[in-house]
Structures are given as C-alpha cells and as structure tokens.
Design brief:
- By secondary structure, the chain is of the alpha+beta class.
- The chain contains 18 helices and 23 strands.
- Strand 17 and strand 18 form a beta hairpin.
- Helix 5 runs antiparallel to helix 7 and helix 5 crosses helix 8.
- It is globular and about 75 Å long.
C-alpha cells in the first residue's frame, strides 16, 4: 500500500470512529459513494458553511444569499447546455469489467509522473541543503524537464481531443501511454463513450402525465434564473453578487476517493454580476480573495496552488482552479470562472424574458457578465479534516492522535471536565457550561480518567479542555489545556469567555481576513 493510500485509509477510519462520517445506509451494506455526516461531522460542516457564508455575504455589502429549489423547470437544463454537453468520457476494461473516466486515467498517469518529479526534488534538496534553488532545478535538471514535457504533452493532447470531441484519440492516447487498468493490469480497453451525468426523475401523479425532471447538477442555475428577482427586490447595483449553499447531484461514472467525488454533494457558489469589459479585473480580484480565504485557515501555503485551465468550458473566457494537496495529491478544491454573458443570454433566449440591467452610469442596458466562485463543501471538509489529522510522538515515548482543526471550525470549542464525579465538581462544571453555551459549542465529559478524556478530545479536535478540580470551589479558577501544545495554565472562571472569544470564535477568524 502506498503512503497516499495509507493516509487516506487513516482519514476514513478516524472519520468513522469519532463520529464525523459514516457510510450511508451501512446496516444495509451501504450505497456506493454516498456518506452520512455524523454528530461531529455535521458540526464541522456547519462551521465551514458559516465561515464561507459570513465571509462572502455578511462581510460584503453588495453580495446577498438565496436558497433556490433543487427541482427546476426542465428547459433550464436545455438553456444551460447540460442536456447536450454535460458529459464525461467513459471507458471500460474488457478483462476486469471495471469502468473508468477516460480523462481521469490520463490525469492519474500525469500525477504519477509528478510524484517522480517530487522525489527528484526531495533528493536534490537533501543533497544541496541550504544552497538548493528549487525553481532553477525544475527548469534545468534534464530528468525533471523530460518528466514535465511528458506531463504537458499528455495533458495538452487530452484537452485537444476532448475539446474536439475526438473520443477515438482519447482511447489512442490511453494506449500510447501504456495505461493499464489499476485493478487487473490489463490494457484491453473498450472504445470511449460519452456519459450524461444528470439524474432523471418524474414530476406528476400518474405515469401518463408525468414531466421529465432532473436533479440539479449544480446550484448556479438557480442563481441565474433569479437574477432579476434579486436585483429588483434588493435594488442591487452592478457589480453585485448572489451566493448560495445547496445540494447538487451528479451520476458520476466512478465516484471515489472517499467524499472527494460523490453522487450527492454540496456546493458553495457565488455568481458576481459585472459590466461587460470589466470581468477580467473582477476575475483576478476574486482569485486573490478566495485564496486569501483559504490561507486564513492556516492549513499551510505549500498545500495550495492555482491551476489555470487550458481547456475552457464552452461558456468561459478564463478559468482557474485552486488546487489543494489532498492525501492523494493536488486536486481541484475551488473553481473561479469568468462565464461571460453566456448564462443570462441563454436563459433570456430560451425563456423569452429579458434578463438585462439598466446601468445608470453608462446610460445603457446590457446582459451582465458573470464571475463565478464555486467550491465543493465536501471537498473543503476533506481538505480541512485530512490536513488536521496528525500522529505525534510525545516526550515520554507515548503517541497521540490529534485533529488540529482550525479552532473556529472545530465541532466543540471546549470540553468541561470535572476531575471527579462528586464533591460538587459536576455542578460547577455545569454552571460553566450554562454560561458558555449561548456563545460556543461546549461539551460536558465526566467518563474515564482525565488523561483518557484529554486524548478523546484531541482526537475530535476540541481546542480547549477545561478541568474543574477541588481548588476550583475555593479560588474560582480552573485548569485550561490547549490542544496543540498540551500546555496547561490556571485561569479564573470569569476569564474563560474572553480567552475563547480571542482564540476560537468565528469572529476572531473573520477579522484576520
């Protein structure tokens, strides 16, 4: 088992054991690529949403939020291009009978070569020490340059073939690269076919008069069809944004890598409406803003990178991904797209309703251009969770597993622990909880020894453990233990709230933006 596979296995196991994520319908042996968020997972997910919503909507006077229906009129998907163009290239292996996304096979091949480059860099860093110039090494080392050329050639050819809908060449590329089925090692492939990703359903009381509907494959269209409603009712002036968090559904050919690619998932999207000709300026601004939002969590600058799209979607004139280093390598976490006026123009054409804005400054009416920021909530959860999971060797030789979540996102901000279950300590602990619970998620815990309780709360990412002991009854003080450093200090009960507001509150995190 590779180091990456081992790390992902640990993430999946820890998520289940500590109430973050369970396989869906597990008592019935589960359902492929669907997951349920447990008690701690639901809380972490809610906090991530909260961080996004407050940063996007609450802190921006010209961005508002909506919550559109999952079911939409079927013509919506004709106008958006999803009926005709929402496909992934599918390929089967004749020997293993396994099905794959053809483009992902090529991307995984490129990622393996990227892994070789990283190994070469690591060896060179060790050899040259402080004198090592990584940028120069990547440009001049013959082996690394050859690897990079191989990656570029494969991905450029893939993009060209997909853009031209040349599926025969996609298959030829897989054969030319010698890509084998990861399960069986077989290179006996079928032709590549297109596969539409939308889930169909019916609306109506009888089969005869039922209307064909689709579960939405993205949340963006709910924003576009409400553009005029929001603009007029909110008296919004361009530039302005509409944000939304909601479920979307895609019938993925191969859903894999835990919650990274699922058939039912949640998106956090914001569509920013701008005057034609200004879109590139706002595109660059939102790239910068979104990266700042991510880096503010402290997950490490080296774990992020921008990837500019070579192959643009039919509606875009610029697109970039913010990629994150997941346990299985760098993959897309968030997309920033300049969508031009494609969406509103299409809906205007298919609905026969004018979706235009009168710009008083320009003294003209136009269909606005759109800059989109779109992030997968489940992917964001996986990024935060996998990055936070650490195994540490302690000074006394023992080990601990700790989930170093950004404190404001942690499911519980503090655990209140009476040293023993008697002598009035539980009552005082409860009094502290009653004082904190209106502002913070806090938990009472009296089961097991104090050491075991510390370890349990380390494992679920609780930033503070607050221990009430016999002295607390006399001096109104408690011992507060910090998760990451394990340092303990004695503070007055009256000081707890101030410490938590400074160290673990969402407000403190947002103020750093």
């Amino acid at each position: 088992m590779s180091q990456q596979e081992d790390q992902l296995k640990k993430v999946i196991s820890h998520a289940k054991e500590y109430g973050f994520i369970f396989p869906s319908s597990e008592i019935y042996d589960g359902l492929s690529a669907t997951y349920d968020y447990g008690q701690n997972g639901a809380a972490l997910k809610r906090n991530i949403k909260d961080y996004w919503w407050k940063a996007m909507v609450q802190l921006n006077e010209n961005i508002v939020g909506i919550d559109a229906a999952i079911f939409m009129h079927p013509t919506t998907w004709k106008a958006s291009g999803h009926m005709d163009a929402f496909n992934d290239p599918m390929i089967d292996n004749k020997d293993s009978k396994k099905r794959y996304r053809a483009d992902v096979l090529v991307e995984d091949y490129a990622a393996k070569i990227e892994g070789k480059i990283e190994k070469e860099v690591a060896k060179a860093e060790k050899r040259f020490g402080a004198d090592f110039d990584k940028e120069m090494y990547l440009k001049t080392n013959p082996r690394v340059v050859r690897y990079q050329e191989e990656i570029d050639a494969a991905l450029t050819r893939l993009n060209t073939s997909l853009t031209n809908n040349d599926l025969a060449d996609v298959k030829q590329l897989i054969e030319d690269l010698g890509i084998a089925d990861p399960v069986s090692g077989s290179k006996n492939w079928t032709e590549v076919r297109q596969f539409n990703l939308m889930f169909g359903t019916k609306l109506g009381s009888t089969a005869d008069n039922a209307t064909d509907l689709y579960l939405r494959p993205e949340t963006a269209q709910g924003i576009f069809v409400n553009f005029l409603n929001v603009q007029r009712s909110g008296r919004m002036k361009i530039p302005f944004g509409i944000a939304q968090i909601g479920k979307a559904f895609r019938n993925e050919i191969v859903a894999r890598q835990f919650i990274f690619r699922m058939r039912e998932f949640e998106q956090m999207e914001m569509q920013y409406f701008v005057a034609p000709g200004t879109e590139m300026e706002f595109y660059e601004q939102w790239k910068e803003q979104r990266m700042k939002w991510h880096l503010n969590l402290g997950l490490g600058e080296d774990n992020y990178r921008f990837h500019d799209h070579e192959k643009l979607a039919h509606y875009a004139n610029a697109a970039a991904d913010i990629e994150f280093k997941f346990p299985f390598g760098f993959k897309e976490l968030e997309g920033i797209h300049s969508r031009t006026d494609f969406d509103l123009s299409q809906h205007q054409e298919h609905s026969g309703k004018k979706l235009q804005y009168f710009d008083a400054e320009r003294q003209e009416r136009y269909v606005p251009y759109v800059v989109e920021t779109s992030i997968g909530l489940d992917r964001m959860f996986l990024a935060v969770f996998s990055n936070a999971l650490k195994e540490e060797q302690l000074e006394d030789g023992s080990e601990r597993t700790v989930l170093k979540l950004p404190p404001a996102l942690a499911p519980n901000k503090a655990a209140i622990l009476p040293l023993v279950k008697k002598d009035g300590l539980p009552a005082l602990a409860q009094k502290i909880i009653d004082d904190l619970k209106f502002d913070f998620d806090v938990e009472y815990d009296e089961k097991d020894s104090i050491g075991k309780r510390y370890r349990r709360h380390d494992a679920i990412g609780t930033p503070f453990c607050i221990t009430v002991d016999h002295d607390s009854l006399d001096d109104d003080s408690i011992t507060i233990r910090e998760r990451d450093t394990m340092e303990q200090r004695r503070v007055k009960i009256s000081e707890i709230k101030g410490i938590m507001e400074k160290e673990v509150s969402m407000t403190a995190l947002l103020k750093k933006l």
